[in-house]
UniProtKB/TrEMBL annotation:
PANTHER family: RHODANESE-LIKE DOMAIN-CONTAINING PROTEIN 7-RELATED, THIOSULFATE SULFURTRANSFERASE/RHODANESE-LIKE DOMAIN-CONTAINING PROTEIN 2. Gene3D superfamilies: 3.30.70.100, Rhodanese-like domain (3.40.250.10). Belongs to the TrhO family. Catalyzes oxygen-dependent 5-hydroxyuridine (ho5U) modification at position 34 in tRNAs. It comes from Ponticaulis profundi. This is tRNA uridine(34) hydroxylase.
């Protein structure tokens, strides 16, 4: 059985000619059977891709790192038994992670990186405020002990939350602020934002949750639950093993084993999170679409990859926030 190599990657870097690289990157990916999504912008590159061989992935990463503006990437590797993406997308963006605040540049100002091996000591410090910079549904699947949930639906809500709950420099009770996210990219912008506001003693987990789960033994871990990933694997556990959550193909959120037993969970139609978010007309459309996908799958015509989901996938579409 083919095992797919998955790479979550990013780098903040001045990328003035990023538009001219869209087609060359896409063509290289196609040549290597690489699927996934890459976002490129004047501030850098970000995304997750999968390849049916380690050698092919190595060639793809080497190609990206050879682009003069990019150089060495921050990459986290994992594996999947099936291709978690349906096709390859290279998108041009204003930001590689959408905060919506002009002038925030992690290339200029950023917090202090903390290696996964040193993270437990930091978040165990009673004088540290631990903030999960991910979205509310991601927090619900898993987080670090003692972490604060900003209850944001998108990363664009984080600056407002920080202004209201952390406040200006000199007014917070915590002496240190430690932040984390899936792969590290949201933390870079979040720490840059707080540093730009004048805060000191700002820290973030290098390589994000994925690197922590890969590096720190389960028996020493302070992580609880699963880490949501923006592809068909849905959730990752310690050692980057596949989790037990599945995806709600109506809203794209993760559904726990308990949630899968709920009366609100209808495959492709609804789950506990989105049962009240759509009209009955929406759900009927989802049912018909699910039926067509089921029939097509039985005929061997189509899989249930992320692009087989309804347009409501936009609720968790912020893969660039990882």
């Amino acid at each position: 059985m083919t095992q797919y190599t998955v790479a979550a990657l990013y780098k903040f870097t001045p990328f003035a000619d990023f538009e001219s690289w869209q087609e060359p990157i896409r063509e290289k990916a196609h040549a290597l059977d690489v699927c996934g999504s890459l976002l490129i912008a004047s501030e850098g590159i970000n995304g997750t891709i999968a390849c049916p061989s380690d050698a092919g992935m190595g060639e793809m990463i080497a190609y990206l790192q050879a682009i003069p503006a990019i150089g060495e990437l921050e990459v986290k590797y994992s594996h999947a038994e099936t291709q978690p993406f349906k096709r390859m997308k290279v998108r041009l963006k204003e930001e590689i992670v959408r905060m919506g605040v002009p002038g925030i540049d992690p290339n200029r100002t950023v917090g202090t990186y903390v290696e996964p091996e040193d993270w437990n000591a930091l978040i165990s410090d009673p004088e540290a405020l631990i903030i999960d910079t991910r979205n509310d549904f991601e927090f619900a699947m898993g987080t670090f002990q003692g972490a604060v949930d900003p209850e944001t639906r998108t990363f664009r809500e984080f600056p407002k939350w920080a202004d209201e709950h952390i406040g200006p420099p000199g007014t917070r009770n915590a002496k240190k602020i430690a932040m984390f996210c899936t792969g590290g990219i949201r933390c870079e912008k979040a720490t840059a934002y707080l540093k730009e506001q004048g805060h000191d003693d700002i820290y973030h987990l290098k390589g994000g949750i994925l690197k922590y789960l890969e590096t720190v033994p389960k028996e020493q871990s302070l992580w609880q639950g699963e880490c949501f990933v923006f592809d068909e694997r849905v959730g990752i556990k310690h050692g980057l093993e596949l989790g037990e959550y599945i995806s709600c193909h109506a809203c794209g959120r993760g559904v726990s084993p308990e949630g899968q037993k709920s009366a609100n969970y209808v495959p492709g139609v609804s789950c506990d999170y989105c049962i009240d978010e759509y009209t009955e007309n929406d759900r009927e459309r989802f049912r018909q679409r699910q039926l067509q996908l089921k029939l097509a799958k039985e005929r061997g015509e189509v899989g249930m990859g992320p692009d087989a989901r309804p347009e409501t996938r936009r609720k968790t579409r912020d893969a660039e926030e990882a």
